[in-house]
TrEMBL record:
This is RNA polymerase sigma factor (Sigma-70 family). CDD domains: LuxR_C_like (cd06170). Coiled coil: none annotated. Keywords: DNA-binding. The lineage of its organism: Bacteria, Bacillati, Actinomycetota, Actinomycetes, Propionibacteriales. InterPro entries: CheY-like_superfamily (IPR011006), Sig_transdc_resp-reg_C-effctor (IPR016032), Tscrpt_reg_LuxR_C (IPR000792), WalR-like (IPR039420), WH-like_DNA-bd_sf (IPR036388). It comes from the Bacteria. Residues 166-231 form the HTH luxR-type domain. GO terms for biological process: regulation of DNA-templated transcription. The keyword Lyase does not apply.
Length: 244
């Protein structure tokens, strides 16, 4: 988000009412920078802790006592659990919501749109444009077209269905096949896997063929890509080399 000079044109001596906003971020430093920038434009920002579980009635009352006019979610939300937590927040608090992220075109945001999110904008948005978008939200002016909303939700559901199907295929692997796939992901060749696990290269090749068949892919590269997608966020590096 880029900043510029404060807006002009206000009548001297008249101060418009401050805009009340709820802000929640999974990146505290980034969220704090956004809060400071918006407060410089006369927003009254209530910063929330990241909701790690569904808000109960008491928590909702506490937030709504602030009488917020809109909500702003800031962060990358790389972890699917965080996206689900953010979607729960959007659906639990009845106000227009905006998402500020690095990649506003990611299909994953369809989960939040389905929960009621009104707009997705990039973190590179100029401050004045962000302020304008928030005012449009509060005025209940349509920020995201119906066609765009439907497209985002449709693409997210298709992507989610494909992810679940891939997870089911991954569960077909035996412990030994899963270990072989992990070692392929770690960069080992068939010969190196055979040496490490104490079996013949032919046995490893048979295990690799079984992996490809069960994952319904045609190459080791595709199998390794599927394995990478199955890893928890933050564990994209080499896996532990421990044969089973």
């Amino acid at each position: 988000m880029t900043t510029g000079p404060a807006g002009r044109g206000q009548t001297p001596g008249l101060r418009p009412p401050r805009v009340r906003l709820v802000l929640v971020s999974d990146q505290p430093l980034v969220g704090d920078a956004v809060r400071v920038a918006l407060e410089s434009r006369d927003f009254l920002v209530q910063a929330m802790l990241w909701p790690r579980s569904r808000l109960d009635a008491a928590a909702r009352r506490q937030v709504m006592a602030h009488r917020p006019m809109a909500g702003l979610v800031v962060g990358d939300l790389d972890d699917p659990r965080r996206r689900t937590q953010a979607a729960g927040l959007v659906s639990a608090l009845p106000m227009p919501w905006l998402l500020l992220v690095n990649d506003p075109q990611d299909v994953a945001w369809g989960e939040l749109v389905a929960a009621g999110l009104q707009a997705v904008v990039p973190t590179t948005i100029p401050l004045e444009q962000l302020v304008h978008t928030l005012h449009a939200l509060m005025a209940r002016r349509l920020v995201m077209s119906r066609a765009d909303r439907e497209r985002r939700i449709r693409e997210w559901r298709a992507d989610d269905a494909a992810r679940l199907a891939e997870e089911q295929r991954m569960r077909r692997l035996s412990p030994r096949e899963h270990s072989v796939l992990a070692l392929l992901y770690d960069g080992l060749t068939v010969r190196a896997i055979a040496d490490l696990t104490g079996v013949s290269e032919g046995t490893v090749r048979s295990q690799v063929k079984a992996v490809l068949r069960k994952l319904e892919v045609s190459s080791q590269l595709a199998a390794v890509a599927a394995y990478r997608r199955s890893l928890p966020v933050g564990r994209g590096g080499p896996v532990e080399r421990r044969p089973q």
